[in-house]
Design a protein that fits this description.
about 100 residues; mainly alpha; single chain; 3 helices; flat
């Protein structure tokens, strides 16, 4: 749209993207506000448990952590040994010509 004519369809697409982004940001803001309220509640208890506050703060900060993970998740590489293919495991089906009925 910036370099073109800004057709109705382009503007509609842009509006859809912006509304989707707005919804995502509202959801994230609501979660953050809930975290803040929970942290205030935990911190203002009469018998404030330091371990509970520390655990909550650690959990909350883990969301915002940008460090690289210590262990990278990897998929299962399979059993060691000879790999089997579908030809080895399944019996072949008889081929029929789809054009012939």
């Amino acid at each position: 749209c910036v370099e073109g004519e800004c057709s109705v369809d382009e503007v509609d697409d842009l509006l859809k993207v912006l509304k989707g982004t707005e919804k995502e940001l509202e959801d994230r803001l609501e979660k953050i506000m809930n975290m803040i309220a929970h942290l205030q509640h935990v911190n203002q208890k009469e018998e404030r448990k330091t371990d509970e506050v520390r655990a909550f703060v650690k959990d909350m900060l883990r969301v915002f952590n940008t460090d690289k993970p210590l262990v990278y998740p990897a998929g299962f590489s399979g059993d060691a040994g000879k790999a089997k293919t579908a030809w080895d495991v399944l019996p072949p089906k008889k081929w029929t010509n789809p054009d012939k009925k």
